[in-house]
Write a structure and sequence with these properties.
elongated; mainly alpha
Length: 59
Amino acid sequence: MTHPRLESLLKKISQIETSLEAEQNRPSPDPMRLQFLKREKLKLRDEIHLIRTSPALAA
């Protein structure tokens, strides 16, 4: 069984990756926006890791 929060986080990461790609492909990417998106993605990955490795949250 998949954790509902995990599904939500994976969807958000996918959306952030799309935003990152779009920003990087702009003629003049905004470095602050790129940094923000990358940090958000890392936060989400950390939360995913916590869910996957915590027995109490994984159930």
